[in-house]
């Protein structure tokens, strides 16, 4: 079996790619971007409600996006490899671990994500000051791989 080639430098024209913005600019985004670049983050969770609010289609395998840091600088291009839509209650441990945030249980992951989804920034982004999630909330579980990175990131 031939190994996949490693990431290559970012292409000069990223304008045709959508932005992948993990969390909101700040410390959480910085940690998530670092986890993507070091290879520990290979999955993420979104909410169907967020895609619907933004009028965006759900991601599909093969879709590529440019990951931006808190300063809106491109740092990598990722490619979606798998997408599942499940109720929050069905998020499994493998997905939680692969989110690269140090979760060791589904319950720990759920608590961390609920703090984010119930936070002021997320509620403002959804234009819903009372937004909450529960076991039945539709979650978008996405797996991805890094396909390109800029020189000097250590990968």
Explained architecture:
27% of the residues lie in helices and 25% in strands. A five-stranded mixed sheet has the order 1-3-4-5-2. The mean pLDDT is 89.
At a glance:
The chain is an alpha+beta fold and 155 residues long. It has helices at residues 27-37, 48-54, 93-98, 106-117, 120-125; strands at 18-20, 43-47, 64-68, 74-87, 138-148.
Write the SSE topology.
Layout lengths: L17 E3 L6 H11 L5 E5 H7 L9 E5 L5 E14 L5 H6 L7 H12 L2 H6 L12 E11 L7
Parallel strand pairs: 1-3
Antiparallel strand pairs: 2-5, 3-4, 4-5
Oligomer: single chain
H and E string: EHEHEEHHHE
User: Which radius of gyration do the C-alpha atoms yield?
Assistant: 15 Å
- Structural category: alpha+beta
Form type: globular
Q: Total number of helical segments?
A: 5
Strand segment count = 5
Average the pLDDT over all residues and give the rounded result. 89
- Going across the major beta sheet, what is the strand order? 1-3-4-5-2
Cα distance, first to last residue?
A: 22 Å
Poorly predicted residue ranges: none
- Beta-strand portion reads 15-25%
Helix content: 25-40%
Biggest beta sheet summary: 5 strands, mixed
Key descriptive features of the protein:
27% helix; five-stranded mixed sheet; 155 residues; alpha+beta
